Amino acid sequence: xxxxxxxxxxxxxxxxxxxxxxxxxxxxxxxxxxxxxxxxxxxxxxxxxxxxxxxxxxxxxxxxxxxxxxxxxxxxxxxxxxxxxxxxxxxxxxxxxxxxxxxxxxxxxxxxxxxxxxxxxxxxxxxxxxxxxxxxxxxxxxxxxxxxxxxxxxxxxxxxxxxxxxxxxxxxxxxxxxxxxxxxxxxxxxxxxxxxxxxxxxxxxxxxxxxxxxxxxxxxxxxxxxxxxxxxxxxxxxxxxxxxxxxxxxxxxxxxxxxxxxxxxxxxxxxxxxxxxxxxxxxxxxxxxxxxxxxxxxxxxxxxxxxxxxxxxxxxxxxxxxxxxxxxxxxxxxxxxxxxxx
Length: 342
Hints:
By secondary structure, this protein is α+β, with helices and mostly antiparallel strands. It is built from 13 helices and eight strands. It has helices spanning about 1-15, 30-35, 45-55, 60-65, 70-75, 80-95, 105-110, 115-125, 135-145, 155-165, 175-185, 205-210, 320-325, and strands at about 225-235, 240-245, 255-260, 270-280, 285-295, 305-310, 330, 340. It has a six-stranded mixed β-sheet, with no helix packed on it. The chain has a two-stranded antiparallel ribbon with strand order 7-8. Strand 7 and strand 8 form a beta hairpin.
């Protein structure tokens, strides 16, 4: 059955697989970049970011030479900004090494590179016979083989990883890994799987037993903490105040306007305007409730030392959290009037 599973899967992929630019190269830099960008990101969104990164930083040396602010600004809007910081750090590791690492252990040693990403790079760029196990693999194998061991347990992870490695056709790791990824993304989808047209239907335990919607099994539930933010965009004589978020919290290294968390509005003099009320922004473990205010004033209020004052027309030259970029703040036009941020 194992050989039959793999051959059917690869045959399906050759007819239905997605045509993606990083699949037309063995350049480990381009492949690594695609894998990092596509973590927690849909391909339709990640493709544009990959193309822009390849244009701006065509090789690992140019990425390593960039500043963190340059990298974060180009990453802006993708979320999970720790990926960008790890990407930048890993680029510097590679340059210091003198070449892109080519063994699974060496690749795994790069900043931010986990087991899946290391295996993907090793198989796609260097042809090593290792399986890259992601959510698509968990889902496909759990359903086809009827596995109900929770995939968020050590036992479940080891079970799937061992099965995937056993299914891997030697010498065809790159094609197999891309095939099972696309099969999970396009055919054996999390909801409304296309079972009627599935080439693996005859051997799928979940389909035979009516358990497609039940597999894979997870035992842990994510605890979501609510946080309440009040942002104040200060417009003071053509300047505004921003600060960089610190380590140990969400959005490390990104810039934002004056923030008050869970407190009352300060008694600052000027014209106050409520821009948005109770904007909800969902993160993996956080639900942010945000209010946005504009304060137009002629006098700078006293702010903590980590705030800096910048010209308002320079605001978009600093990388912001997605919550800021997707909810308009007033920025000055050339004539000096305020307009919504694009």
